[in-house]
């Protein structure tokens, strides 16, 4: 149980933490700064040599309790991520499809999100954030058992990124549930307007189980700062973490776990489901850019909980993630508009909304890992890169990725993940990474290797692409062989609102 509390709450480093200062540092500690973690722990023997009276006094001291301010901030962050999905993502996607498919997208997002949240509490949380092996967690929290003692009336706690600062485990579990839910829903945009509703739910169940959970565990699970009590145990604690965490990859809030993971699944789906009837011959224009703009705005607001909440505390790193989310997004909007004006002669509302999402995606892995200047650069690069992703790259791939999931989330996620390795450097205004969790010592500017960190980030990106790609391919095939992926041509022409749900978004 102790391992679970240390790993689970500390694993809180998970989705939000994957790139948080702690997570980043922790990761770098395990991979790039192993020597520092070993040498800087010379003070550990002092703790082990504590006198009997000191031990007795320590044992008598009350256990630390979660801070009320941190608890309130994490609950608010959880609500903000729900706002991102329902209604934010639903309206953003809904406005981009044709009016005859508006309700189908809203249904897929709302019901898909609800499905993943239920699966998360049944088994997802346990397999993502409890100790197992370097690829997947264990069964300690199946059905959320042990999350609280209803006899004693006490609540289980887990770690944050600060030693001796716990958080309520159920709050962390709820926060991470929203990450899993929105990640699955992002995929929906790639095959919108032609897939069976039942196929969506079946695929999301398989993909969540065999792609999201393992990648979340590999990137975010670790034993937490309180487990690093002495130099002698540091290596053992690192070995219990997820594989990508052990490498030292920095992913503050989900560049790999959320965006690249979902984008690859979406691209595979675009190929597997096939192109929409009339694609390339008919105009497929958004039916309501007004709703798309409202959705993008809600995404931007909710994303502050997504990124800043990943710090797991209401502290300086949460503030850093907050301002970086603000600045990078604004920079990406401007970059996309400039690029669009140069290419087409005019900047569009669709482009501005897409630029905002591109900036939000790219800053996600870097939010608490880079300085403000680095965040602005990431936003600018993401704006131009994702504009190319939805135009030039899309033509090269020849896939009907309906709402440009790969062009924005895939390219934006990759750009953000790689540039995190650059701008995390304290020499470029970044906060560096944790070099030693025993003494909570950061890697010094002289010892931080940009090339080394970028290589680690690259490996994390490659593993995520391959893992999600293979799982997605198998999952789509299984669904196609059993219930079928696609609606009939007649149903598609009629519109999924009527053919799949028997209702319409707009009455004439």
UniProtKB/TrEMBL annotation:
Residues 72-506 form the Ammonium transporter AmtB-like domain. Keywords: Ammonia transport, Membrane, Signal, Transmembrane, Transmembrane helix, Transport. It is a multi-pass membrane protein. SUPFAM superfamilies: Ammonium transporter (SSF111352). Pfam families: Ammonium_transp. InterPro entries: Ammonium/urea_transptr (IPR029020), Ammonium_transpt (IPR001905), Ammonium_transpt_CS (IPR018047), NH4_transpt_AmtB-like_dom (IPR024041). The chain crosses the membrane at residues 72-93, 105-123, 170-192, 199-223, 243-272, 284-305, 317-338, 350-368, 374-393, 405-424, 454-476. The keyword Cytoplasm does not apply. Residues 1-22 form the signal peptide. It is found in: Cell membrane; Membrane. It comes from the Bacteria. Belongs to the ammonia transporter channel (TC 1.A.11.2) family. This is Ammonium transporter. It comes from Roseateles saccharophilus (Pseudomonas saccharophila).
